[in-house]
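Input sequence (337 aa), recorded before submission:
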Amino acid sequence: MPQQLDVIQKLSAHRGKVWSVNWHPSGKIFASCGEDKTIRIFTQEKDAWVMQAVLSDGHTRTIRDIAFSNCGMFLASASFDATVSIWDKKAGTYECNSTLEGHENEVKSVAWSVSGHFLATCSRDKSVWIWDITANCEEFDCAAVLNLHTQDVKKVVWHPLEDILASASYDNTIKIYKEDPSDNDWTCTATLTSHSSTVWGLTFDKTGKRLASCSDDCTVKIWQQYEVGNPEGIATPDNEPVWKCVCTLSGYHDRSIYDIAWCKLTGLIATACGDDYIRIFKEADNSTKNEPIFDLETKILAHKQDVNAVKWNPVIPGLLLSTSDDGDIKIWKFNNL
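Predicted structure, token format:
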């Protein structure tokens, strides 16, 4: 298999495991977090990525996840100390202006809705929280506490175009939620079952009509949404769209798959695996909506230990970030676009 993924730069900024990384919506900044209880901000200077700031006063335990708001002015961090910190850059540098409390123990994931009206968090306490955000992120009010998973909730991700939320859990399921406009209550509209072990990661495609999941069962699954009145004749009980698993990528990964990223620019899917590899999948030319086909484009031994996260740049096609238990962040370029 030809080498199509080249490492551009390696950054050894954290002490210990680097759990997560995320791009600023401009594609010119990224943030990382890890077990050293810090967030590190990087920007590009000429041809190199350089650390610009260390945020170290927000949490007392490991920081598990981070996410920039769509406006780019705010950063949220989720920690094993059971809190979520909100950082703003109104004064020119990132400062912690809010701490969200409510989860009983470790917060595993945090995500901003595309509208900017909501923040979602999830935890080992089996709950998903949705926070209602006032203008300028000055206040965060709890809009919903969803106790529908039976185990640790690992990941929350928002639909790219609508305020629809997906969560992944140790209970092997994925759940989809949306707000009922009649009473503002958040409800679960679908439960996706096909994985045989923990679902670690989720990612929507650019349309939000497809979802990819990755699991401890060493598979990637592609889910298709079928609207009410779909031409395929698939039943939609309760007049809600249904999600069907239309493709399973098995036999490619040797250990748990911890993260997955579906590039909104190229359609490429990247996976982060416990076998220390990154793999890139591309949809085949003869792929169809109801029977999609994805081919393995490349695999590369990316890190010395588990790969924990992969994230595609939102502006520059083929630019990928990865993090690992080995303490490194790597910036990659996929060349076969």
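Checked by second reader. The first strand starts at residue 5 and ends at 11.
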